[in-house]
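Example record

One chain of 289 residues, shown exactly as stored in the release files.
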Amino acid sequence: MTNALPLGGTTYSWLYQASLTETLRGLAEAGFSYAEITTAAPHLQAPDFGAYERFMLKKEMSSLGISPTSVNPGFMDINLMSPSTDFREASVKHMLAEIELASDIEAPFVIAIPGRRHGLSPAPAEACQWWLEQALTTLLRRAEPLGVKIALETSPYGYMGRGSELMEVADRFNHPNLGIAYDCANTINNEDPGDGLRAVSSRLLLVHVSDTWRERWAHTSPGRGEVDFASYADAIREIGYTSPTIYELVDLEPPMPRIMEDIEYFRRFGWDPAAPAQLGKSHRDLEMR
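Predicted structure tokens for this chain:
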């Protein structure tokens, strides 16, 4: 198939199942040359991952032929718009450490989910917007001199679940170091993923792909759920996205050798780990050249 789409992997697929070193070797064995690094225990946590450990991580990835696309803390506890000042400040502090880690291992992007509102007593939208903008202002102040870009990711938690909602935030800032990460498995209940992808194309930094169900959120193997991968791949080509699509397999089942079969499934729609990629540029960057 022409116009092959580069496909990357993530260390998240092996979390709780293998060490970080074993995980990186698994990614290389699967044929990935690009990977998102999930910075969650027990693999690593940015604030506690020292200079030597960062040097060794970078060295190990280089020896395996893997380039990091991004770091992603997983957002199990981080909430940039928590009504609690203590938790909000702790979240910002953690994200600052993520930015510094990304710089140290030469990952161009840091994934940032805006946050979540309580299901029974959600904070007012105006307050959430203010807290998020205050957090992003602090994070961008650190990211810009380090050359790291913050990729706001669509969230399934009932706040900013559509690409257009992230665009409103990115447009208000209009900052060269703020863009969007789009995840079809996080948006399928809110919008057609292809349409959502087109809506954010001018600020798109990174794309995530995995399968899910509309009635049950998942990040599982393609073909199990309800994602229309053909339509999603068509949208990626249409907008001219050239960075890797990250296959974010996160379902706590052993990833190997299943991930090999998943790659073959993705090849039906043009994704290929061997396809060349242009990493670190947004669609807007490419248009301005």
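Notes: The beta strands are 5-10, 34-38, 67-72, 109-112, 149-153, 178-183, 204-209, 245-247, 271-272.
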